[in-house]
Amino acid sequence: MNEVKAMMAGNVWKIVVAVGDTVEEDQDIVILESMKMEIPIAAEESGVVKEIKVQEGDFVNEGDIIAIIES
Amino acid sequence: MSYIDELNKRIEHIKKGGHEKYHIKNEEKGKLFVRKRLELLFDDGMDIEDAFFANCMDDSLPSDGVVTGIGKINGQDVCVMANDSTVKAGSWGKRTVEKILRIQETAMTLELPMIYLVDSAGARITDQIEMFPGRRGAGRIFHNQIKLSGRVPQICLLFGPSAAGGAYIPAFCDVVVMVDGNASMYLGSPRMAEKVIGEKVTLEEMGGAKMHCSVSGVGDVLVKTEPDAISYARRYLSYFPKSFREKPRVREAKEVKEFEKSITEIIPENQNAPFNMYDFINRIIDEDSFCEIKKKFAPELITGLSRIDGRSVGIIANQPRMKGGVLFPDSADKAAKFIQLCDAFNIPLLFLMDVPGFMIGTKVERAGIIRHGAKMLASMSEATVPKISVIVRKAYGAGLYAMAGPAFEPDAVLALPTASIAVMGPEAAVNAVYANKIAELPEEERQAFIKQKQDEYRDDIDIYRLASEMVIDAVIEPNKLRDELAKRYAIYDAKNTVFTERKHGVYPV
Predict the structure, then answer these.
(1) Is the distance from CB of B297 to CB of B323 less than 8 angstroms?
(2) Which of B276, B300, B323 best tests the A interface by mutation, with the highest count of A CBs <10 A?
């Protein structure tokens, strides 16, 4: 089980995977919008997306859990 | 027994280090014997060794648990101290400390690089009066390190624990390489933490190599094995002169690695879209010449040694792929130390800018981002080595300043045609200036108004306008950037300036 966390504060701009998807290490899970930049948040390990804890438009703080990947 | 036999017998005994069971224990952990480590470190073994017989009246303490001497790395003499963890877990007695002090003082006199191969449990409590508090006690090791700092390169290879006071050896080195799984640093052990403050924590969580190389930043380079750590040190030193009095040796130039996509093709047109700065770096430096420092710590800023046309160049680059390349307290710290390192040893600097600015918000203000950012500005500003800044894309706000913007006496500010310099980006600026006006407008007119103002703003900060105002020194075609840099570093090699006259600044730490 691996938690994907926001590396900085920002708004969830796009969620680019769905629950049940198989993802590779370094594959983008969501893209935040912060400091007027697109901030991709990637999986640290390969696995299956078990849960996505945010919705597009949500504000997330640094360290908030965005998704859970089951390896 | 003849004198010679007696001598040889003693040498044989001491060379073997501690009891066999400790050798076996080390082997199980993937740890090499100290003399094997030194064999790998030097071109051709250690040339001279002093105080080999330290504490030889006690059979159980060969060399008093530390090997000190001089050998060659890449043909260059270097001083070394290496703990022997088969001798009382590499702990420090009176003679251990004295040996370390002497080799440091030799490094000082001869102005040679100093390498610390650390694998030690810390002070021998039984010997504390002799080794801890006095003038030639362990504190002096750190005093010497601080004195050596910036005079000669100091490298720490951490193979095992570096506990309590001993943890300051890595802290005062220029670079700390940690072997994953075996290396650790901590002031108080987990056992002590539980007893004294009630915290239950594992050694790996509290002071492990991964943690230090990615979270605390006390470690710089995480490696899998001891030979990896040793080969990193040999490679790292090849970018440096032996002391601050000299310049790094210019090596044979290598071509840039060939890639399918050119620089122009890897930079996205949309300023806000991420791209991978490593791809950019690899297209301007000599093939395979990037030697990264602090890869896992504050990855939104890349710092590493490289060669351009055979010359050592220290690169500080924003990484838009991580945190948008925004500067944080940790990235500013990382940059400050790296800049000091390069400046101390006459390694020219290259700033690759694609920076939206410093991070804003409660979290970073509470962490003192202004203070940390000031450190980066101070060391960048003070650096008198050749400095070139390249504006790859954005250079917004104080980001422009921190990355060696025009006001900080870089030898040149070069812009790619994709460059954009401003207090802030068009989206933020229009919002800042016209927020009230936008709110007053009928909803259907807002988008058109915003777009018009953003376009006007873009025209206003057009890179050719800045070139016309001589804010930047040249606009360079991306595919010609490497050649431009090579020419300029060769010419700027003549630079010889002093920042200012004083004892030292009062640094924002």
Answers:
(1) no
(2) B323
